[in-house]
Specification:
This protein has one helix and eleven strands. The protein is mainly β and about 200 residues long. The strands form two sheets. Strands 1-3-4-5-6-7-8-11 form an eight-stranded antiparallel β-barrel. A two-stranded antiparallel ribbon has the order 9-10.
């Protein structure tokens, strides 16, 4: 993935140097999401009882998480934009992550006009906790762009965020985390409804 991101940045820079500087954008995006639904599948050796536990199931979502990102984008043609985003975000369980993603946007009335837009985004994230972890996520949705002047815009979006994660496993009976060496599977999926605001130049 790192090579893909570096290749995309190189292509954006080459395109910008080829006379498309007006189509090169930087911006900041922030907002929050609320988890709608979660699924987990944990499989681990429980040393206290001496056998393997296989725990899986669905739960109604809960909790609110915030995010903030910086973005670097380039318009391709009059109606499409490709952007790289990186920043910080919250995950269920009170954890934080550093995401890096690629977003493709389509704006029917043009990238430099007021109007609705639609986007699809995907990427990965490094999760902060003592044992280290990673997550993958995808966002899809739409919003509205308001042009502030010929170069600046304010975007508001609403989307679904789907995250695939490997959280630490909490043993409810022993009230402690299962040690990493005893974990065979620690997969989790979260579906969240997100609202965000972006300022682009």
């Amino acid at each position: 993935m790192k090579r893909s991101i570096l290749l995309i940045i190189s292509l954006l820079c080459l395109y910008a140097n080829a006379g498309a500087v007006k189509r090169f954008h930087i911006g900041a995006e922030w907002g929050a999401n609320t988890t709608l639904m979660t699924f987990h599948h944990f499989n681990y050796m429980d040393e206290a009882v001496g056998f393997r536990i296989d725990d899986q199931g669905w739960e109604a979502g809960r909790g609110l998480n915030a995010f903030a990102s910086l973005c670097l984008g380039l318009d391709f043609g009059r109606k499409t934009n490709l952007s790289i985003l990186g920043g910080v975000c919250g995950l269920p369980g009170g954890r934080r992550a550093v995401p890096l993603s690629l977003r493709a946007s389509y704006m029917p009335r043009g990238t430099a006009s007021d109007g609705s837009f639609f986007f699809l985004e995907g990427g990965g994230a490094a999760v902060w906790h003592p044992e280290g972890s990673s997550a993958a996520f995808a966002r899809t949705g739409g919003g509205y762009r308001l042009m502030l002047d010929s170069h600046a815009s304010l975007d508001v979006h609403l989307c679904l965020r789907n995250t695939y994660d490997h959280p630490r496993v909490w043993d409810k009976l022993e009230e402690r985390y299962i040690q990493k060496r005893n974990i065979r599977r620690n997969n989790a999926w979260y579906c969240a409804l997100e609202i965000g605001v972006a300022l682009n130049f």
